[in-house]
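Here is one chain, start to finish.
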Amino acid sequence: MNIVSDPKTIGTVLSPEANQAAALASATGVLTIDLDAIVANWRKLEKTAVPAECAAVIKADAYGCGADPVARALARAGCKTLFVATLEEARAARAALPSAVIYVLDGFLQNCGDAYAKIDARPVIGDLNELAEWDVFCRRSGWRGGAAIHIDTGMNRLGLTVSEAQGIVPRINAGDHGITLVMSHLACAEALHHSINARQLASFREIASQFSGVPASLSNSSGIFLGPHFQFDLVRPGAALYGINPTPEADNPMQPVVDLKARILRLRAIEKGETVGYGSTWTARRPTKLAIVSVGYADGYFRAGGSSDGTRGAEVVISGKRCPIAGRISMDLIAVDVTDLEKNAARRGHMVTLIGEGITVDELAHHFGTIGYEVLTSLGPRYARLYKGGTTASEPAPATPA
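Its structure:
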């Protein structure tokens, strides 16, 4: 198990084990990421998508789980292709994995050709102006690093229109075009029977078939579970790698990845009729024992998860039992009703579980009124981050362009 901590706060003369112990002793919250679970999820997705290649989306710091350790663990497991959002994320990924194929979803940025070439990153081009700029750079520099073409089939966000994509088909058929992937993105893949899935599939299948010899990619995490017709040559899972349910209409087939804990700062007793927190929205209906816990919306524990006299909020686990939040969530603190716990089951300095022990990222997202993606990517920098596993897989194989 490895810990990521601020070197300024811990003496460098200490051993790694002592550094870890010191970090945990002073941390008000601990986020543990199970790299073996991420690898197991990737392998499950890879098996589901066979014979398509299974890439991995590690944008937004691998959805808050740490792009560097996640990328290394996945590469050791055999993952050859990565997707990131920005050029800066591509630089970090390239530093971790010199031989990986890296696609940049935000596309080809103006006057940044040299930066793409320097790290051998492939832009995902979704605009004719981008394509023209990329062409000019390639002609002037002689760079042959490749790029993807993104075609919009219903998301109405990034991507060439289908008619624009048809306009460049002659270029593809002429050869020496430098396009290594054609892709689109599903808008409603998590909804198994949504009508737009079939429309997007038909649209993409037709246009992708005209890009002769170019591998095609349509499916994100949820798209993989729509069936083989959606998988094409390469699939691009993101959220499912990190334990978020890609099939919300059914049980989650993925392993949980993160465990989040925060420390009890103090215990206090209040009388029946007293209120708790900002706005006095929660009133004690009996003599109540509270645990004040060191987490809040500054740490990505959203304010929407609080409770009031008429609404039950999120829960935490203390000594194996679920306990409800009492009142509003503050910037740095929450109050938890621990009245029903046995004596000394909750004590100052103990850690309580915010994610884990049956509380999933998706459950917490429900209380927050959002999705698991936002929960994971919002977990703040004040947690000590620990990593377990990820070191026993085989060494990465040489990258094969998609």
